[in-house]
Amino acid sequence: MTPEEARKFLGLPDVAPLQQEMQARMKAALESGDSEALMRAWMLAGGAEAFERFQKLLWDSARNMTGKG
């Protein structure tokens, strides 16, 4: 079973587009050599709020899978 097949089987969200966007932003900021730009690129993607939403999504998915949602 491939990682993609496992993700689909478990009903987990596809975060590949988000990861690609973050990689592009981080790479551009790193290439500029500007640490402030690097932090701005990270924070524009949502920062802590985005992490909290993603964490909630995972917990909700786990609850739904166990039937306790």
Polypeptide structure, described:
The chain has 69 residues and is mainly alpha-helical. It has one domain. It contains four helices and no strands. It has helices at 3-10, 16-32, 35-44, 47-66. α2 (16-32) runs antiparallel to α3. The longest helix is centred in the C-terminal third of the chain and has 20 residues, at 47-66. The protein is elongated and about 45 Å long.
Give a quick precis of the structure:
The protein has 69 residues and is mainly alpha-helical. It has one domain.
**Count of runs of 4 or more consecutive helical residues:** 4
Coarse structural class? mainly alpha
Main pleated-sheet profile: none
Q: Could you estimate the helical fraction of the residues in percent?
A: over 70%
Q: What is the molecular shape? A: elongated
Question: How many domain units?
Answer: 1
Q: Proportion of β residues? A: under 5%
Helices and strands, in order, run as HHHH
Low-confidence stretches: none
Distance between the termini: 28 Å
The rounded Rg comes to 16 Å
Which oligomerization state do the chains in this entry correspond to?
A: single chain
Topology, number of strands? 0
Global mean pLDDT: 78
